[in-house]
Amino acid sequence: MQELNRQMMALPELRELEEIIRFGTGPAAVSGVSVVHRAMLGAALRQETKRPLAVLCADEQEARRMAADLAALTGEECVTLFAREWQLRDRVSASHSFEQERLDALCRMAFGRTGIVVATVDGMMQRTLPPTALRDAVLTLRLGEEHDLRALAERLTAAGYVRCEQVEGAGQFAVRGGILDVYSPMSAPVRVEFFDTEIDAMGEFDVATQRRTKNLEELTVLPAAEVLPFAAEGGRDAMLARMEHAAAQLAKKETTEKTAAAIRADMDRLREGLPLGGMDRYLAAAYPTAVCAADYLPEGSIVLVCEGSRVMERAKGCAFEWGEDLKILLEEGVLAGQFASLAVELEDLTRRLRGSFPLLLCDSLPTSRYLAPPRAMLSINARQLPSYGGSLETAAADMEHYLAAGSGVLVLCGNETRAKNFHRLLEERGVKLILVFCTGALHGLHSNVPMLEPNQLLRAMAPLLTQKPRILTLTPSETQVQQCERRWKEAQPDFEFTTFPASPYLGDPFTEELVSRINAVEDADLVIMDCLGFSAAMRDRLQARINKNILLPRSLLFRVACELLGI
Predict the structure, then answer these.
(1) Model pLDDT for residues 265-312, shown as the tens digit of each residue
(2) Is 466 strand, coil or helix?
(3) Would the N or C end of the chain have less CB density within 10 A of its end CB?
């Protein structure tokens, strides 16, 4: 898929978008892109710019499809962020599963553990705790650490966990002697065993059988709720002071005396550390400064808005529904008017996004309704091809049509067998040259027309370019280092090989440490970038910092192809 993304970035429209992002001349309105084209556009920009990507969708169905498309196109895990139902009534036993899924997504964003976020507009608008508060609320336990078990139990209660006799679901914990069972959201339940105050053992266990299933050396415990009094702005006492201020105002009117009494009763329970259901009704008391998921986006993120008119309609509908629900609670005296702000307005969300991030407004058709006024407008002539239903002949005929019209064609096959079958079919139709876009060794692929394999070209060229006994190679992953060295040694037994991991797909691969390690190898004067993901720009950046020659497979492949085709 990396090659597809690279070919996408060769389009003039995407190069222009990349410049708009780089120089901050957006927002940019992009028309002519359907659902799958928006995913392709986002994946290509993510790979080219190495910036985090956030996609804003109108509803969950569209967001889930977008996340699946982006995961397939980038090979990265995508975090999805959706709205949740607020817990506003005093029900301690209410389900918090949606809230905990949302907390997991926010934690990943807060700690920078994801490069792609796909969110619904209502999920982005809902208020939450500040990123710093969430990071502080996350608890990490490691083998051998010293912890007071009573203090841990108090910390878990403050983080929204419910103490019980036996753990059965997420957001619960139990203490028995020197054993702590805790069920953190979005993970398996874990049993932590103490020897005095030292963590002696940790392991996941099965809730039904209570048997350990996997040993652990480290446990990350997420908070179980978004409204946490100990993480409130100014601390728990400041939150209680804001609640008392609201109660004092409400007590002045006979019609709201009931609400004031309920607030003060809740304050007593919070002071005593007792569980309190419906904590969302005090979200604004805990965090008076409005924070939403947009505040969790990393600096420099690209924000892609899918069908702005649908996003705006969805936001308008959600705001109306939320307003009607809150009106009922206000009339019943369940919610105080001072704390009735549970989401930011769409205009506020738009200001946050537009003021901090490059904004791409993507629509299928040209429109006059935009989430933010665009400063640049582009139209992309993108077509969604019909499914070929397994017919390679139809695919080949369409490919010939597009080639005759002057278009380039990149073919992606679902598996190696299908690629070989399509390869044979193209041969029969008179294809002149076949290029393989992989530096790995391919087996069982034969052709009756010239077929250029980077693997073969590199191994033929490398010995001619050095007089030293050692050759250095770069491979995308640490897990491929030994395999790469073994493959090269088998092909060139007269040389020694040293391989360094450097991914062309995630940020700048050429760290100071890598450059120093390359320059420190004195018995080598050639570096081979053993992956087609490395670009000429990457080669030039590395060349300026090392004292060795570099062989780039992409350039070698296309130069030989151009020579054969007389281009």
Answers:
(1) 999 999 988 778 889 999 999 999 999 999 999 999 999 999 999 999
(2) coil
(3) C
Please say whether the beta carbons of 28 and 374 come within 8 A.
yes
Distances (CA, A) of 57 to 46, 310, 527, 530: 18, 8, 44, 38
C-alpha closest to that of 31 among 370, 274, 258: 370
Catalogue the long-range contacts made by 440-445 (C-beta closer than 8 Å, 24 or more residues apart).
440/487, 441/487, 444/420, 445/419, 445/420
Largest interatomic CA distance in the chain: 94
The C-alpha atoms of residue 116 and residue 56 are separated, in whole angstroms, by 11
What's CA 512's distance to the chain center, in Å?
26
* DSSP assignment of 278-317: -GGGGHHHH--S--BGGGGSPTT-EEEEE-HHHHHHHHHH
Q: Which residues contact 264 (CB under 8 A, 6 or more apart)?
A: 244, 247
95-115 pLDDT per residue, tens? 677 888 999 999 999 999 899
Phi, psi (degrees; rounded to nearest 5) at 477: -135, 150
Q: Is 538 helix (H, G, I), strand (E, B) or coil?
A: helix
How does DSSP assign 336-398, residue by residue? Answer: -GGG---B--HHHHHHHHHHHS-EEEEESS--S--SS--SEEEE-----PPP-TT-HHHHHHH
Nearest Cα residue to 348 out of 85, 539, 48, 126: 126
444 pLDDT band, cuts 50/70/90, is low
DSSP state of 227: -
